[in-house]
Structure formats: structure tokens, C-alpha cells
Amino acid sequence: MEKTTAGLDNFIAISVPLTGYSRVALLATGMATDYYHAVRRIIGDDRMDDFLAVTADILQHTHDKAPALDREIRQQLLASLQYGPVTRNIIQLWYWGAWLPLPDAWIAKYGKGVKGNENHFISPAAYQQGLIWQAMGSHPEGSKQPGFGSWSIAPLS
Amino acid sequence: MENKEYDVVIVGSGIAGAIVAKTLTQAGKQVLLLEAGLEAGMAFDTDGAYKNYQEYLRSYYLALAKVPNAPYPDVKDAESPNVLDMTQINGKPDTKGYFVQNGPLPFASDYARAAGGTTLHWLGTCLRMLPNDFKMHTEYGQAVDWPIDYEYLKPYYEMAEREIGVSCDVQEQHYPNMGGDFFGKDYVFPMYKIPQSYIDKHFIEGLNGLKVSLNGDVYVPWCTSTPQGRNSTPNEKYRYAGTGWNATKKKLEMQPFPKRSEVYEPVGAIWDPYAGQRCEGNASCVPICPVQAKYNALKTLKSAKKEHLTLMSQTVATEIQIDSSTGNITGVAYKQYPQADSKEYVSGIAKGKIYVLAANAIENAKLLLASDACKTSDQVGRNLMDHMVLLTWGLMKEKVFPFRGPGSTTNIPTFRDGSFRKQHAAWISPIDNWGWGWPTGSPDTDLDHAVSTLNLFGNDLKNYLGDLLSRQLLLHFECEQLPEKSNRVTISKKYLDNIGNYRPVIDYNVSDYTKKAFKASKSVSDQIFAGMGVQDFTSYPSNEPDYTTYDGQGYVFRGAGHVVGTHCMGTTAKNSVVNRDQQAWDHKNLFLVGAGNMATLGTSNPTLTLAALSFAAAENVLKALK
Ligand SMILES: Cc1cc2nc3c(=O)[nH]c(=O)nc-3n(C[C@H](O)[C@H](O)[C@H](O)COP(=O)(O)OP(=O)(O)OC[C@H]3O[C@@H](n4cnc5c(N)ncnc54)[C@H](O)[C@@H]3O)c2cc1C
Ligand code: SF4
Fold first, then answer.
1. CA nearest to B434 within chain A
2. What 3-state DSSP class applies to B463?
3. Which candidate in B462, B470, B472 is best for mutational testing of the A interface (most A CBs within 10 A)?
4. Which member of A8, A56, B20, B174 has the greatest number of CB atoms within 10 A?
5. Residues 245-304 of B with CB under 8 A from A
6. Is residue A147 part of a domain?
7. Which positions in chain A touch B288 (Cβ < 8 Å)?
8. pLDDT (tens digit, 9 = 90+) per residue, A62-86?
9. What are the residues whose beta carbons fall under 8 Å from the beta carbon of B616, sequence distance 6 or more?
10. B 541-570 residues with CB below 8 A of A?
11. Which of A39, A27, A54, A19 has its CA nearest to residue A117?
């Protein structure tokens, strides 16, 4: 139980620099727990624990501060054959709500026990909470409607 | 049920069938309506209607490709075509989807076989056709003239605008060659226009004064707010409560509000009249309006007179039966399936005095062909048309914030008519409010590109997306297709569905008349983009399903969802399937309704016209029943 909470905290902590959204903004989507469990469910406990260990380490020794943090995210996560695809998927999960299939090469090397790797929205709510809509000054198409005539002026935020 | 004879049997509960059902039942006629779609879609009680619609919405949220049919159940016993099934055709028929596509190019539009029909996922643009659209042969030496003209249709357009609930400011509507009395003195629409988008405002400003050359002529293109079937602020000057049958005059009439103080009330969701009284800006009209601020045919069906209407769902009409001595129709054979995808079904025959086919252009044609009906002209299934949509896209200089509001709120009507129609197709250009969604799959494809290829993350990613997605501009050039004999729907015993009914087999191509319009409209687009400083990102890859070339240039067109022309209206039994009354030449008690009757396409989206025609057809049925 404790491990899960710590894992979730780590997951959210690394998601902040990965997405460019604050911890509060990420929590406000209401999706953090679901995404955390979804990734764990798909890539399995071992891979998830590895990933969280690396990210915790990055956050700790960079003191969660750019530019060191950015460099470490690039070098240790995005450039890594093991962690790169998972990292990119987590970014896209936050922005769009859907899981993308991990590439075949990744599956062949690291994918023992991977389950449910097909392209899918985590839930209807995941689609509705995608950060991409905020990023473009809009709202998810088909949800959180901003009201009559709102489209005729620039977004207020 | 099988033994009862109704006044009228209708096949299909889309807008065409629903208008006929509503008009006839309100005039006191007994109507049986057969609908191929699921029973759940027919629920009109508050709970049932809401629950079913929430299921549609859930499917939409979860769908990876949010294509028009994504929210709606695809039932094997009454399949719907899906744009995702479209591929390039290389020599042999493509049988992957519901359509059997013979090509050479795939037919690019779909429809929904569910209660309410394709208006569930239409956009709602409600333009009238122009006077010259009805006389293409006389004016431009192209195709055919209709047996009716704009003046004939005008009162029915008003009925259709009332039924759909069209929002529009009449004084802003300027079209080429519209004549001095296009709308009639003092005419107003039920509701004021839907506010034009922030993109529109920038676009209109950018376009202002720009001169465009086309075939040696100079045009100054202008923009017009688009009439739409979605709810806006009621216009207090609007005076009509509805449409009714005047039995004495034997005529359909618009009925004024009984009291002067009454005003038009927007028609809300079928589960709650107060939901959806205004368009709330969900920006998902295609494929689904969550609050039903956008019109769909369930609204019309709900307002039919219940005591006179018998609905049979999960009931697929398979054949009309013909008395060979009189040519009269004696029944509609159907198969009723107990649940979705079942191989089993119960057969039956529905009987009425008059029969109305309203299953949409392709399904109507299929039914007629399966029944060996309307054979004299050899026109059934032929002249299949759609608007062939050339898209162009780019980045505006400033942020215009697309992905908000209804799909399109403004159009360029300048090229809807003109003497160039002697040489090439006319077109209308809606300005799209949803970024590059249609051609490139934005916004998630942009996200994937940014993360996977550009290696962006964090604030860089957020800023990149914020900039790219808020500057996306998309223009449509919806080019007219002429009626051609070889663009056609046929049937074959080789291609049957889950319960042994025919699948549509389609032969389809684009002629030079329309290709010339691709070239011309692309040149107009280039001039507009250059004049406005739009960074052009348009590309027409040769591996797209509807890739074609003209004059050394490649083009990709897309379907508009405007399925038109398979049982055209005409002047004689030899040149057409129905007469000007929409009655089959060969079968006096058979009426065909829907866009299949349209002799030519023009540049307006067809539904307002087919709705107007459906009122006219209902009037003719009422006259025939007397
Ligand atoms: C993406 C998209 C956007 C569109 N946008 C616009 C727009 O902005 N403006 C516009 O004017 N038009 C638009 N259209 C076109 C519009 O949706 C159609 O013209 C219109 O809905 C056709 O109405 P209909 O009643 O003739 O046929 P449909 O709506 O297709 O209804 C036919 C009905 O018959 C039923 N049926 C079919 N076969 C059988 C059978 N054998 N037995 C029993 N029942 C059967 C079906 O289930 C359905 O309920 C759009 C279409 C698409 C696909
Ligand atoms: S913009 Fe939204 S509320 Fe308005 S019609 Fe479209 S989906 Fe419905």
C-alpha cells in the first residue's frame, strides 16, 4: 500500500516536468491514479518499478530543477531504449488520454508480461481530461462545453 | 400487425421519413414506419432516450478515430458504411466494408442506419439551392434541368426551415445570381444566426478587398454567415407555429402562432425540452451533439402524432412487392431481427394504401433494384452524386483558436454560380472551425509528431502545441458533381449481408468537369493564402484513397456525406425514376423521398432541399389518399 502511494507520488512528480503542467494542474484532472494504475497494469510491476526508480533518482539528484533536470530527462529517459517509449507514452497519456502501443522492438526486449498494449483510451474521462485542450485554449470536443457564442471571442484564459 | 392495412407504410426514420410520418399522422392518417436500426434508438421516454444517447456519447469518447459513425452501433443485420473502410482500389473490388467498391475511385461518404438516420451525425448546414441549380442544362448546357424550379420549392423551404429550426440572419445572405426575391419580402428564420467564430472574424478581415483571378475573370470573394440547423436565440419576428394540412384547400400550409405574443421556442433534446435550447459550443456536432442543440430527425419523429404512428424497429425492408398487372405496390417485405448481429429473423409483409421509401439514396436504390421496380427508365441506382471536397490548410499568422464552436459558421458563396459552370463545377467554401482535424487528424497527430519526432516535452511541448493548434486554418472547396450514368449503385447475389440482404455495389469516378474545379479552386485557395499570409501546409499524397490527377497535378478529394441522385426526378418515364410529385412513374402508389430524387446537386448541402421536397411529397401523398 505504502509502496503504491510512493509510486504514485513519483509518477506525478516526474509527470510535472514531462508535461509542463504543475502538480496541482495534474491532480485537478482527476486522472493521476488511473494513469498510474494503467501504466502499471500494461507494462507490469517490474518495469514500472524500474521506471519509477530511475525517475526518482533523476528528480533527487537534479533537485527537480532545470536545466539539469531537462538534460537528465533527455539522456536518461527519452534517449533510453528501455525508458524512452514508456516516457513518451506517459506524456501522450496526459495530453490525450490514450495509450499508444509500445513498439515491437521494445516488446521483444523488455515486454515480457505486457498486457493490454493496444491503442485505447483509458476511459471516457481520460479523453475528457486531456491536457492538449488546455494547451490550445480550447476544451475537449464533445465535453466541457464553454457556452453559447463562446467561440466568437478569443478564449479567456 | 401483419394483417392490418395502414394508410401509408414508410421505410426509414431519417429526416425524409420522419417529415412524411409527422405530416401524415398530424393530418390523421394511419402510418406504419419500418426502421432498420436498433429498438433502443427509438426510445422517446425521458429515461430511455437519455440512456441510449449517453451510450452513444460514451462510444464517442472511447473511439480512437472519431469518425461520423463512431458513436453509433454498427449492427450486422443493418450495416452502415464507415469512412475508415475506404482504401485505394487496385483492379479488384474492395469488399472490406459494407460497400462493395468497384471504383475506379472509392465512394467517400457514409450514412447511419439507426433511428433518426444520418442527421445524428450531420453538421447541420442548411443552405437553399440557387435558382440556376434547377436549370443547369438551359443555363450552362450541362446535365439536366429539374422538372420543378426554385419558385416551386420556396414555400417548402420555409416549412423545412421551421422543422429543422434554422438559425440565420436573412439580410446577410448574399449569393451569386440569387435574384431579387430569393427569401420573399419580410421573411426571417426561426432563430438569429449562430455567432460566427473568432477564426471567421480574422478570415473575413484578411479576405477583405482581395481580388482573385479565375479563368481570366476577376472576383472579389465575400463571406456570408452560414444558415444552420442548431439552436440559437429565437427571432421574435418569426411567426410560424408549424406546418399543417388544410383539408379544404388540399394543401400544406405554414400555420401562424395563434397569439401575437407567442414566439418561436427552440426544440431541445428528445429527453428534455430544456436541454440544448442553445448551441453550447461542444464542437463535436459531427459525430454527435451531446446536448442535441443540433437538429436530428428524432425530434421530428417525436412530434408525430403518436396515436396514428406505429413504429417497428430492427425491421429491415428487403423488397417491395408489385402487382404485375397494375404496377401497384402490394406490400413491403421485411426481416425483423430479435437482437443486434443475430443471424435469425422473422419475415413479414407490411401493407398500406401508399408506400414511401425514405431509406436514403443508396438504400432506396438497393431496395428498388432488389424488387425489380421502376425499370422503365433504367435510371435506378445511376447518377450517384456527392460533393467532392478539396481541402486546403495552413497556419494563420495570428492565433485564431480553432477546435471551438460548430464545425463551420461562415462560407464563401462567391463561386456557387457563374458562367464558369459551362466549363467546370461550381463550389462553396465553408471555413472550418476545427483546425486540421479532417485532413491530418489533428490534434492528436500533432501531439504524436511533437513527442515522437520533434522530441518535445514539458513546457516546450505545451508551447509548441499551443502555437500550432491555435493557428490552424482549414478551407473546404465543396465541388459539384454532375449526374453521370456510370456512377451507380447495383446489387449482386455475390455480396449479401448477415441476414441475406444485398450490400450496395458502387461504381464511382470523378469527371473532368469536377477535376477542372479542383484546379480552379486550388488556384483560388493559393491566392487567398498568399493574400492573407497563410503558411500553406496542404498536401495531396498519392496513396490517399481518392487521389486523382488533372493537368499534371495531383489532388485528393473527400466525401461530403451528401449521398444524392440514385432515383432522380425528371420530365418523363423514360428519363427519370420519379415525376415532379416524387411519385414513381412505374408504380402509382409508390413515392420515393430523400436526396435520391435530386436531378442535380448544386452547391448546397442537400438536406434542407430534401426536407423541403419531403414536405412536398407528404402533400402529394395526402392528395393521393383522398
Ligand atoms: C458527416 C456528415 C455530415 C453531413 N453534414 C450535412 C450538412 O451539414 N448539411 C446537410 O444538408 N447535409 C449533411 N449531411 C447529409 C445528411 O446527413 C443527409 O443528407 C440526410 O441525413 C439524409 O436523410 P435521409 O432521411 O434521406 O436518410 P438517412 O438519414 O440516411 O435515413 C435513412 C433511414 O432509413 C433507415 N433504413 C435504411 N435502410 C433501411 C431498410 N432497408 N429498412 C428500413 N429502414 C432502413 C436507416 O436506418 C435510417 O434511419 C451530412 C452527412 C454526413 C455523413
Ligand atoms: S457546437 Fe456543440 S452544442 Fe453546438 S451543435 Fe455542435 S455539438 Fe451541439
1. A141
2. helix
3. B462
4. B20
5. 278-284, 288, 290-291
6. no
7. 142
8. 998 989 999 999 999 999 999 999 9
9. B152, B153, B156, B581, B582
10. none
11. A39
Report the sign of the C-alpha dihedral through residues B262, B267, B271, B275, in that order. negative
The answer to whether position A46 is within a domain reads yes
Contact of B406 with chain A, judged by CB distance below 8 Å, is answered with yes
Residues B7 and B5: their CA atoms lie apart, in Å, by: 7
Q: B244 - beta bridge partners?
A: B253
Cβ separation A19–B195 shorter than 8 A: no
Q: Provide the domain limits for residue A61.
A: 2-141
Residues with Cβ < 8 Å from B11, sequence gap 6 or more? B17, B33, B34, B317, B332, B355, B356, B357, B358, B359, B367
Amino acid A156: pLDDT: 82
B497 at the A interface (CB within 8 A)?
A: no
Q: Would you place residue A4 in the very low, low, confident or very high pLDDT band (cuts 50, 70, 90)?
A: low
A148 belongs to a structural domain: no
From the list A18, A123, A146, the residue facing B281 with the nearest CB is A146
**What's the one-letter identity of residue B458?**
G
* Distance of residue A142 Cα from the nearest chain B Cα, in angstroms: 5
* Mean pLDDT value across chain B: 97
ipTM summary value: 0.97
What are the structural domain ranges in chain B? Answer: 5-625
Q: Residue B404: its chain A contacts at CB < 8 A?
A: 138-139, 146, 150-151, 155
Q: Quote the number of domains for chain A.
A: 1
Nearest to A142 among B60, B401, B405 (CB): B60
Q: Answer yes or no: do B399 and A154 touch at CB < 8 A.
A: yes
Q: pLDDT band at B431, cuts 50/70/90? A: very high
B265-299 in b/e burial notation, b at 16+ Cβ within 10 A? ebbbbbbeeeebbbbbbbbbbbbbbbbbbbbbbbb
DSSP state of B234: B
Dig out the grid coordinates for B378 from the structure. 433504367
**What are phi and psi for residue B224, nearest 5 degrees?**
-135, 140
In a domain, A129, yes or no: yes
Q: Which three cell numbers stand for residue A24?
A: 496541482
Q: Copy the grid coordinates of residue A38.
A: 494503467
